[in-house]
Amino acid sequence: MNRVFIEELPSLYKQKIKISGWIYRYRPLAKTAFIILKDCSGTVQCVADPKIINDHNLKLDDVVELIGSSRAEPRSKQGFEFDIEEVRVLNRSAHNLPFNSNVDLSDIGQDIILTHRPLSLRNEKINGIFQIQAEIVQSFRDFLRSRKFTEIITSKIVSGGTEGGTNLFELKYFERSAYLAQSPQFYKEYGVAGFERVFETGHVYRAEPHATSRHLTEYYSLDLEMGFIESVEEIIQLERELLTFIFGRLNEKYFSIFENFQMPKLPNMMQVPIWSFETCLEKLKNKFNRNDLIDDLDPEAERQLCKLAEEETGVASVFVLGFPLSARPFYTQPGSEKNCSASFDLLFRGQEITTGGKRLHTRESLEDALKARQISPALFEDHLQMFTLGMPPHGGLAIGLERLTALILGLQNLREATMYPRDRNRIVP
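Below the sequence we write its predicted structure tokens.
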């Protein structure tokens, strides 16, 4: 007898079938026993004569196989129930679990939840976080494939850094040193020379000694790079369209998850404004008496700018364009204003979720940029030679998946949106 998923039961009324899953709720009464069974497709209330159940000593989170038949039941939340004829226990949960999957986990410590991650993933609310995350990745792919982007898969073991060699995790690579990739940036650019439009989703690594709610040493990045562009505004417009597509999908398919987190529907991003970095500094000075920022924005400034954007446009989001060139990686294209870069950050609900921009695309300009920073071009010879193979003008962006997920659902700590977080203190499980 083949197993049937719970969501298929309404089409199989009165047929003898087998379902499998975890015991999500269990209520044994004198004359009837009720089990809520959960599998990857949903839950169903199962009903049995106690004589069938009692000898199995069932408890919450046991893994079981049930044989019986489904029937319509208007009083049930699902509109149907399952009548149990036989029970088989596939595996028993421990008697001393730190929590059960059906309980409210808001009072359970984060370390306990992470240490027992498989159990917490069966919790409806936590499961929803990663349903949202999976849809973001799928929608990212679907949108870009529809725009002639090719997905590439690149190495995460590299010989050096993309951002000057700082904050790298060094590893022993046979007789020499290698590093975990900070970013697929260089590989994306090489991809443009071959495919014109490329994207990648994958882990990146930052050896930054933070222990905050906003930082991880390993996170998942959604990257894209596009050739034959004339301005950085083309990348900004692409991201407006990309996020509007992703957010529309999430609103349509998963609004019930937003309700569980008491979060509103996601906004249309097509009208998110572009403010220059200098304009942002002026707004912060005028509205919040900020005079302390020079070449970057701090977390408080990001929150303040999103607040101002929401007051002006109704959406708590803004593209900040034209950061000082000295504060951006060497491969960044200079902007139209002196000492400014053709690069941007996208702020959303108080935090930066994207960094992007237009890149230098000739060997000569890259060599000049390196020399201007007192870096020998010889250190980047393998990289520079790629720009002699026919590299078009190009630009791109990167979105942090965990941070975007957290902001969508109003989560306070990035680790809540990370299945197995890696930070300064945690490398298990």
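The chain has a mean pLDDT of 95.
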